[in-house]
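Thread: Newbie trying to understand structure tokens

Hi all, I'm a second-year student working on a class project, and my supervisor (Dr. K.) asked me to get a predicted structure for one chain before our next meeting. I've only ever worked with sequences, so writing a 3D structure as a token string is new to me. If someone could post the tokens and maybe explain what I'm looking at, I'd be very grateful. Here's the chain:
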Amino acid sequence: MSWHSTWAFILIPILLIIVGYKFWRRREGIATLRFSSLKYIRSVSPGLRARLSELPLILKVIALIFVIIALARPQQSDTKIKKNVEGIDIVIALDISDSMLIEDMKPVNRLEASKKTIAEFIKARNSDRIGLVVFSGEAYTRVPLTLDYPLLQSNLAEVKTTRNIKMGTAIGVALANAVGRLKESTARSRIIIFMTDGENNSGTIDPETALEIAKGYGMKIYSIGMGVDGQAQLPVYVTDPRGQTIKTYRPMHSQVNEALLTKFADATGGKFWRATSGQGLDSVFHEIDQLEKTKIAVDKFTKYSEHYQKYLLWGILFYLAGLILGSTWLRRVP
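---
Reply by user tm_fold:
Sure, no problem. This is what the structure looks like when written as tokens:
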């Protein structure tokens, strides 16, 4: 309940002051008689009419209070909010080749740092469809475009390097797979976040060809080069004769094709970043989150319904009751 004209409530104390003054003046004007003793007068109880003599005035005062409340115009508001959401479709292409196990990014390695940051990115979105493509020497869609974020998070948590697909880094195939997931999209913005720590050395589709397809569909690519270039130590797990797993390391050369990833971004209106730490990767995704904001238009409609009528009706009824009683049964005779 709200009040359109709250200024009207100031009339209530003014009314009470006037009534109080009227009672005070009435007492001042009452005639008096002197008696030697009030003993017998006090033993006489006043009748019902005498006890209710002020009732007509009280009823009229209550009536005026109700009229003042009606004058303040009590209203009930009914607000409806209509949201027009123009979502963004995003496909994340994540490299899961063996080199992503290199332990140069916290909390564990390149792959776990990527999964952690992607999970936080998903939490920050609320109306965008997101899909996940993973790749090494081949690529496959782990999760198609979806608004089912719990499903997406659970699948992301299970991502790991695997020997079940061809080894290597098929950048062209991965990009083409991501484009295939977005080509039927009707979203106002279609984004590919491409994450790799290597160079294209596998696959049947050339990266340049995949890039041309992405450009043809008007997709934007944000590319991220993972880890530090140069010699690195790749963890290798072997089982000893006693059945225990032993972690060892073997040397490996890691090199990101920055020129290719930069070309992906520049040709599609996106951006290229180099992330060499977990914190740096977090900053990259924070910037992407700021660059790609979902457009939400909010239309707010408020309908007010008036409720002064019932207060005005009560005011009329109380005033008529006071007027009738004051003119009949409780009439005051001078």
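A couple of things are worth pointing out once you decode it. The CA atoms of residues 225 and 258 lie 7 Å apart. The first strand starts at residue 2 and ends at 3. Feel free to ask follow-ups in this thread.
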